[in-house]
Structure formats: structure tokens, C-alpha cells
Amino acid sequence: QLIDAEPQNAWTSCFVFKFYLHFKLWSVVNLSISLHRWNISKESCPEISTSLVKSPTETELKIKEILQKIHQLIPPRPYTHVNNTTSAKHSTVTILNPRDTYCRGDQLDILLEARDHLGRRKEYGGDFLRARMSSPALKAGASGKVTDFNNGTYLVSFTLFWEGQVSLSLLLIHPSEGVSALWRARNQGYDKIIFKGKFVNGTSQVFTECGLTLNSSSELCTYLYGRDQEAFYCMKPQNIPCEALTHVTTMNREISYLSVKEKSLFHKSKVGVEIMKDLEQIDVFQCKSNTEKCQIGKMTPAPGGYTLQGRWITTFCDQIQLDANKINGCLKGKLIYLMGDSTLRQWIHYLPRVAKTLKFFDLHGTGPFKKHLLLDAERHTQIQWKKHSYPFITSHLYSVTEEGYIPQEIDQISGDKNTAIVITFGQHFRPFPIDIFISRAISVRKAIERLFLRSPDTKVIIKTENIREMHIETERFGDFHGYIQYLTLNDIFKDLNVGVIDAWDMTIAYGTNNVHPPNNVIEKQINMFLNYIC
Predict the structure, then answer these.
(1) Which of 17-26, 393-402, 456-465 has the lowest mean pLDDT?
(2) Which among 73, 75, 63, 74 is positioned nearest to 23, based on CA atoms?
(3) DSSP code string of 145-199
(4) Start and end of every NXPE C-terminal domain (predicted)?
(5) Could you tell me if 304 and 316 are in contact, meaning their C-beta atoms sit under 8 angstroms apart?
(6) Alpha carbon distance 178, 278 (integer Å)
(7) Using CA atoms, how far apart are residues 325 and 534, in angstroms rounded to an integer?
């Protein structure tokens, strides 16, 4: 839906001012989510008073509830001096209830006491830690679970999934002071990314600034998406209609909300420092275990699986090893929708290796983010990938006519027992205040609920984010932002009858540290998907 917004348009200004007031009413959350870039002033809507503001909607109340949960996880920890921050070197680890021998399936617990650079015990938690166990000779790995007691101590738990010698790792990704700084910086503004829209009118074309919010009194084009009316804006070019927007591209803005002192916490040498480097390997011996077939709706524990000899082995269900004949039989008559970012585009490029009868059908799009379509006409199989809508960050021009606002895409699917949908989003949301991500996740959930009303047999699978490069721009794209989104997504979808491919857990286990993991990991993600639908 397109709206040509006039300068000081009364409806738009009043709507945004109401939205602003709603957020003011949520001040109990005490999060620095800045709306100053909306350029709102009371003069633009003088007839509005707080007494006339509508009560918060169900979605707004849900956003508030989730924000409160996250805020409790990340209390403010002002950075005063590096000596007061957590030190991997001075922190101590102790194996709880150590044994001479460990059995496959046992849980190994380790107590971490965080200390600062002067060796003093930390009195609060909040450090961003990543636990992993591995056996390189066996091509084996799994994530560990970290429990924060919020007093400077942590319980690090590993489930010993395989037999052999196991090495344990606990990385201090960021101290709590760095986490607090990143959280404040993330929610301080929408302007870390510059969006440019391409408007085409006959033979002429013009680029103007676009964004999730725009600080401008100029005439705007407002593009509203789905039932929840999520908005994207562009500066309206002179004498060109808003409908003439054809493509969008992005670039990073040279801006930071971190102080010079805070930035020193994210120097390459201080990110991902090993805490347990002096811990000896653990010997694990064989045990038996029984699991059931993988099914949609089954709770996914943490960790949900591990690698062994390069394979991904789930801990909560028994994966079927599918050969080419079984895969072709399973895909017969299937209509599969892949909705999300380039980490799902990797799937559609890899799938022809899994089912060799699948062939790409040229839809005459351009660029890497065009809609992709795989067909097997003989078996009546169709698989498509479509990128999700704003925010989508890339230096490539991409067509807005191929935008896939996921809730709207789901609403257009009739669904049946042979229809499957895979959804992922998150990487492109990391540079923006968290409310954007929460709102989108809630909208996606509501669309899935509507789908299940008309077609309860449709299979829906949520793929969580991959971890990415350790030393990428931390303030904009770092894994801390992804981890908060991972927790949020799990909370929003926890009681919905969907399958989960825990790519966060899987990519930690494989130790990929790449937003686009190698093909062997993509293969395991697809295999997990096939186990859900076959």
C-alpha cells in the first residue's frame, strides 16, 4: 500500500505523535529507544491530548513485555576503567563434582567466577560468554549452556554427547560493561544504515534518501506493509509519484553511539578471549540413549544437537538418514516457500545437489536478491526463495517489486499438508533498535496463527540466525545483537506448533563464525528440514 505523504500531513503527523505518546507511556521500561528522528512536535498535531490517546494494542503490550524481559537481562553497567571490567585471564573455573571417568550422556558442570583485571571478584553478571566443547579428531562439536547468577558467578553446563577426548572452551566475547554499551548504542538511533531509493519515471531516474524513520520536513512517500502497517519512508522526488520507487540500496553511515573509551572494549584482542585454556581434556566413555523421530512442535532443548564425524546429530529426536530416492519421494507434490535473508538463499542454491531433478526456472529478475525458483515438473515440486522486506542491508540494488513482507506472504498462502514454509530473519535487523525486530516477529507469529486456522496441516519451520564473524563491526552487526534476537524469537514462538532449526546452536557447534557457513553446514540444516517434512 502506498501513501503520498504531504509535508506536515495531518494524518501522518497525528498517527506518529500518538505512536510517540504510546512509547512515552511505556517509560517504565526505561530503555533508551529514541524516537527523536521522527521529527515530531506538538505543533504538527495541536489538537491531540494525552487523554485522547488510544489504549495500547495487544501487539504494543507484547512488545513492552518483551522489552522489560530484555532490560532485566541487560542492566546499565557504566564503563569507568578497563581494570574494573571482566578479565578472562584472572577469572577462575572449577569443575563441580569431578569424576575419574565420564559417561556419554553425562552433564559436566563448571563454576565460573568472573574477576576484573586487578583480580577482584565481580559482584554482578551480564558478561556475554560462548561455551563450546569439541573433539577435532572426531570432527565433533557442541555448544554449552551458560547460566548467569547475576552476582559474578556463572554455571557452564556441557552434555557429553560422544565418547573420546573432549576439549572445553569458554570465550569471553564481551564483558558486561561492553554489553551494556552495545545495548545502549543499538537503541539510540535508526541512522546507522543509509537507505537510498531509486525512482524511475520514463527515461529519468532519481535517488532519494529512505529509511525506517526519516528526520525531514520534506514531502515523504510512506509505504505500509501488512495488517500491522509497518512503515518504510522515502523522500518524495519532485514531479515523480511515490509508485515510481523500483529499487533500494544501502550503505553504512559513519556514525557511532559508543564513546572512544567504550570502543576500546571491542578491540580485536579483547573479543572472544579464552577463559578455560588451562583446563585439561575430559575422557568420555560409551553410554546408550533412545530418542523419538523428529516432529514439528517438539520442544528444542539447549543444546539441540552436536556434530560428530561432520554429521549433525539432534539430542531431542532421531533423524532419519535420507537417500536420494527417499528425498525425491518426500518432495513429490511439495510446495515449499523459503522466506528470509541470504542464509536461506544458500539453501536454494544447495538444494539441487540434494535433489538433482530440481532445476532453476528463470524469472528474469536481476541481481542476487531476485526471487529464485526451483522446479521439478515431473514430480510437481516447487521451491521458491524470496528475500524479506525492510530492513534489508546490501550495497546491491534490489527490486522493491520482489519485496517479501513475511506476514503478508504467509497470508497469501492457502496451505495444505504438502505445503512447507521456512522463515528466517534477524541479521539485517541488528543495526536497529530492538523494537523493530520484536514487532516483526510478533507480526510473523500472528500470520502463522491465521495460516493454522485455515490450514493446520501446513508445516512451518523457523530457522534461527547463524553466528557470524567474530570481529565484524561489533556495534552494528555483532553477535551480541543476534543473541538477544535469538532469545526473543524463542520466547515469541515457544508455544506455537512449528519446527525449529536452531542454526545459532548448530553454527556454534561447528565453530563456523561466518554469517554464510560452508556447504557442509547448509547440508545439515536442509537435512533437519527434510526430517521435519518427510
Answers:
(1) 17-26
(2) 63
(3) EEEE-SSSEEEEEEE--SSEEEEEEEEEEE-HHHHHHHHHHHTT-STTEEEEEEE
(4) 312-534
(5) yes
(6) 25
(7) 12
